[in-house]
Every structure is written in structure tokens, then in C-alpha cells.
Write a structure and sequence with these properties.
By secondary structure, this protein is an alpha/beta fold. The chain contains ten helices and eleven strands. α1 (8-16) crosses α10, α2 (37-47) packs parallel to α10 and α6 (109-126) crosses α8 (161-189). It binds magnesium ion.
Length: 271
């Protein structure tokens, strides 16, 4: 949905919401990249008038790099209005004299070993061959989830945003069918876990029932804001997209296509 035709009526509804919830990758920043200066400014302005929660599949380290780094000029008072829910709300961080972990729900060691083995089996079975050059781990144990990243977890950190995202987009174009096949096989082998073919180049395995709907409910529970007082903005609110599950909670959703669209939405909320 292109966000250049937003009605005043829509805007008025958004402005009444108490908490604005953003997806991270593709919504506040490009995939695994640092959010840009304009987004940083808009988010700071938004924090002055609203509470803001960010929910993403990435781990806290990525949130730090993508969001917290650019927000370091933001006043401590404003940061207290910001709430971070990495790895799809299986962890929660809030600002109180520095960023503090409120909870982290890890998978058991046994489950993590089992999932990693299953990834290797499935790769073998479909004949998947990793690219010659990868950047960091391809199968990463995030504690709360195991994530396959075709080009390695640190590609953007190594090559910079432009080249990293370019290679990921190329990989996606060439390899989406094999990625989806792998995800399907994993889901069959690991029925007690949730398998998500998230992002351009990744597959996440988490506890069952951990999706954006779970994420929104955790936010509701920990921030004590009813779903009806939230607005959720995401770039994958369509069937098959990793934000789509949020709809199950009844939260008002604003589908966007890119961080540029998100900026238009924030500007409207700011009025
Ligand atoms: Mg996204």
C-alpha cells in the first residue's frame, strides 16, 4: 500500500492510539541495516508524544546496531517511552538508566541442538549448497530461536548496507523456491516448533505459537496497553508475510511497503 493518500479520518484514528508498534526490518530500517537519520529524527519526535514498541525477528544485538545506536542523541527521558521486543517478543528490553533486559525466554539446549541438526539434514536433502563466500554464521543459535541466514548473519556489517542488501536481494531472486522447500521440510520434521521463512534470505525456527500475534500480546501484557489502544505498522502484513499474524489480535494494522512509507505514517501521526 502506498502511503501518499492517507485520509484525515484515518490519521485521526491513528493519533488517538496510545502505543505505536513497529516491525523493524523493512519498516523502520532496511533489512539488518541501520535506520537512517530522517527516521531517527521522526522517531525521536514520536517518542515525545507516544509510547513506541519495536518488535522484530532479529536478536537484541541487531536492535542495538539498527536502532539504539542511531538514537544515542535522543534524551534519556524520551528513551523511557521506547520498548524493544527482539526475537519476536521472546525477549523484552526497556530503558531505565541504560537498556535493561526484562525477560528472555530461551529454548532448551536439547531443542536447540535438535533444530540445528535438522537444518543440516534438510540442507543436505534438498542439495542446498552455501554460496562460496558467507559472512558469519549461516545457522545461528540466538537462544530464543535458531536462524538460517543464507549469506551469513554479518553480511551487512561486513560489506555495508548497500552491497549487503544487494547481495541478499540477488540471493532471494535466485533461491526463494529452494528456501521455501527447506522451510516446508523443516516444518514437517519439527512439528512442535514454528518455522518461518522470514526476511530475504532467512528461515527462523522458534517455539510454537511465537509469531507477531504472540508478540503483540506480550506487549499488551508487559506494557499494560490494551490492543485496541495500539497501532501496528509493518511491511509484511499480507498472507504469508511475517507480520500477518498480528491481525489475529485485532490490532489496527497499517501495511507499508518500505521505511519511506513508514516516515509518511509517522509524519501523519505527528500532525
Ligand atoms: Mg519486516
Amino acid at each position: 500500500m502506498k502511503k501518499n493518500n492517507i485520509s484525515n479520518r484515518e490519521t485521526a484514528i491513528w493519533q488517538k492510539k496510545e502505543l505505536i508498534v513497529f516491525d523493524l526490518d523493512g519498516t523502520l530500517a532496511k533489512s539488518k541495516a541501520v535506520m537512517d537519520d530522517e527516521m531517527m529524527r521522526l522517531l525521536s519526535q514520536l517518542l515525545a508524544v507516544k509510547r513506541v514498541a519495536v518488535i522484530g525477528g532479529g536478536k537484541y544485538g541487531l536492535f542495538k546496531m539498527q536502532l539504539i545506536g542511531p538514537l544515542k542523541k535522543c534524551s534519556k527521558e524520551l528513551l523511557r517511552n521506547m520498548f524493544l521486543f527482539p526475537t519476536t517478543s521472546t525477549a523484552f528490553y526497556r530503558y531505565d538508566h541504560g537498556w535493561k533486559n526484562v525477560y528472555t525466554l530461551n529454548l532448551s539446549t536439547r531443542d536447540r541442538v535438535r533444530i540445528k541438526n535438522e537444518f543440516r539434514n534438510v540442507m543436505k536433502e534438498v542439495g542446498y549448497v552455501s554460496p562460496k563466500k558467507v559472512y558469519g554464521k549461516v545457522i545461528e543459535d540466538r537462544g530464543t530461536q535458531i536462524t538460517f541466514s543464507a549469506l551469513g548473519q554479518e553480511i551487512v556489517a561486513h560489506l555495508g548496507e548497500k552491497e549487503g542488501v544487494r547481495l541478499k536481494e540477488r540471493w532471494r531472486k535466485e533461491n526463494t523456491p529452494i528456501k521455501l522447500k527447506m522451510a516446508k521440510m523443516l516444518a514437517k520434521q519439527l512439528p512442535q516448533f514454528e518455522v518461518h521463512a522470514a526476511g530475504f534470505t532467512s528461515i527462523d525456527v522458534t517455539r510454537k505459537g511465537i509469531d507477531k500475534a504472540y508478540g503483540i500480546r506480550q506487549i499488551e501484557r508487559y506494557l499494560r496497553v490494551p490492543v485496541k489502544n495500539m497501532l501496528f505498522i509493518g511491511d509484511a502484513i499480507f498472507p504469508g508475510g511475517n507480520d500477518y499474524a498480528a491481525k489475529k489480535t485485532g490490532v489496527l494494522c497499517v501495511p507499508i511497503d518500505s521505511p519511506e512509507d513508514t516516515k509518511q505514517v509517522i509524519k501523519k501521526i505527528l500532525g
